[in-house]
Amino acid sequence: MAKRIFQTTKYRFLALALSAAFLIAGIVGFVAFGGFNLGIDFQSGFSQSFQIAPAVLELTYSGDETVTLDVVESNVTLVVRSSTTGVKYHEFSTSAYPTVQDIASAISNTVSNVQANALAPQAASSSIISGFGLPATLSTIPFKLNGANTDRNDYVSINEIREVLTEASLVQIVGEEYRQIFQVRLGSDTGAGQEEIAAMVSEKLKAAFGDSNIVVLQTDFVGPKFSTTLVTSSIIAAVVTVVLILLYVWFRFKISYALAAIINLIHDILALVAFIILFQLEVSSTTIAALLTIIGYSLNNVIVIFDRIRENRKIIKDMDLLSMINVSVSQSLSRTIFSSLTTMLAVLPLAILASGSIQLFAIEMAFGVAVGAYSSNFFAPAILFWTTKRKGLPVSKASNGEKVAQFEVVNDEEEAPIEDLSVPTVERKLKGKRKEKK
Fold first, then answer.
1. 405 with 324: CB under 8 angstroms?
2. How is the chain split into domains, by residue range?
3. What are the E-state strand segments in 13-165?
4. DSSP reduced 3-state for 411
5. What stretches in the chain show pLDDT beneath 50?
6. Which pLDDT value is given to residue 413?
7. Which CATH fold would you assign to the domain 8-40+253-387?
């Protein structure tokens, strides 16, 4: 039972105004930004992440065995496979070899027939990055490892990338600018395939910034047919989810509760969409996953509050609806706050420290949890008040004889006073050993 009753319905007009203002801002942003920032999942075309990084280490192998090179968290690993001696692992960590020259000397002295030359001897070994072509099999043809740029005063700007790749519909920086990690997106309207587009991008970048200075990190390609199918499937999944929720709430409660729950869910969905538009977050399959997760999370909060309202209406039959909503929300408030904070503690570290799709999902989840907590306690109760026909009733005493506050019949513009309100409890009949023990 709530010890303090919070007048949440008092702010119902403010809640509606705040929600309307945010959704209108989303519409303005949609027009201003020219639509969504569609990811490669929903927009057919070619997407590539690459890093401009100078070559710092060159390796060759002149033996008859198979030697595989890989880089994991800047640690260089060589795996030698031989039919006579089996498999041997050689790992050269950045902690043991702080410079590129140290690693080059250690490799040349440790692994037979492998010659390592330091192209940037004084560069930190921790700057060595892993690329799209790793792990790689060494041969007599030199294989080069690149190192991330650590000089903030010596980097390629995003405008230079746009000048080189004029065909790109999107060019953006990933992470800090001096790290020189870029993502570009090109449409496939010309009918060119992945290999043709990748070759064209590679040729232009290498011609502008050096043949050995481009490290491809990730490449994605989605055809027009697949992207259209994915968009259609996502829309169908969202619509079916909302319809099933409507039927479930209608079956469990009444139509007024079902309408309030669905309007609240649509509000949460539109709020998340507006947030994505305003901050130009990428819309991908990860966004659909976050959207469906938020629908379930928000619905759970709303159902708990609506269920408490239904129970209180059975116990306190003479209380007006506005006051009953305030009591029910206050009784569930601590539960909503603690569940939201717990979810935030799990999501925020990923939103801050992670990257890529996981970070995007965490950011959208964090905003969705905050909006769900707000809407379930302010927006949904206000909608429920307007979707039910019963506005309020006079009250004298509760059904169990315990005195409660006096309330006047209220309309949409009046507030029922709540002073020294105590919610009556119902005595349960004890049976068997519990009755004897009492």
1. no
2. 8-40+253-387, 45-222
3. 37-38, 45-52, 55-61, 66-72, 75-82, 86-92, 114-118, 136-137, 143-146
4. coil
5. 1-2, 390-428
6. 39
7. Multidrug efflux transporter AcrB transmembrane fold (1.20.1640)
